[in-house]
TrEMBL record:
It holds the Pfam family Transposase_1. GO terms for molecular function: nucleic acid binding. It comes from Eumeta variegata. It comes from the Eukaryota. This is Mariner Mos1 transposase.
Length: 120
């Protein structure tokens, strides 16, 4: 599974999980901690403006787990309310996945290691 965070400028951070890994509230909170550090490096302007960082995420159980909600409060990020999956409001389907599909169209991954190396 590829976990990816992006904005209007492009990909900010991603993690390719091991084939046996699944997303839990604890793992997602850890990913958000890493994302916060990377954001400060790659997008320092987000922290120098008066607006909050706005996070759009789905309502999967790991994303709405108590540890995640509490951590997001400490970050002071605004989380956009997101209704259950709907094709007309899934920006990743239109913006991110189409460009990724185009960029990776000639790639052939035969193993987890190939995938990990090809994305890096």
């Amino acid at each position: 599974m590829l976990c990816i965070w992006w904005d209007q400028l492009g990909v900010i951070y991603y993690e390719l999980l091991n084939p046996s890994e699944t997303i839990t509230g604890t793992l997602y909170r850890t990913q958000l901690m890493r994302l916060s550090r990377v954001l400060k490096e790659k997008r320092p302007q987000y922290y120098s403006r008066y607006d909050k960082i706005i996070l759009l995420q789905d309502n999967a159980l790991p994303c709405v787990a108590a540890p995640v909600k509490n951590y997001l409060k400490t970050l002071d990020w605004e989380v956009l309310p997101h209704p259950p999956y709907s094709t007309d409001i899934a920006p990743s389907d239109y913006h991110l996945f189409l460009s990724m599909a185009h960029a990776l169209s000639e790639q052939r991954f035969t193993s987890y290691e190939d995938t990990k190396n090809g994305l890096g």
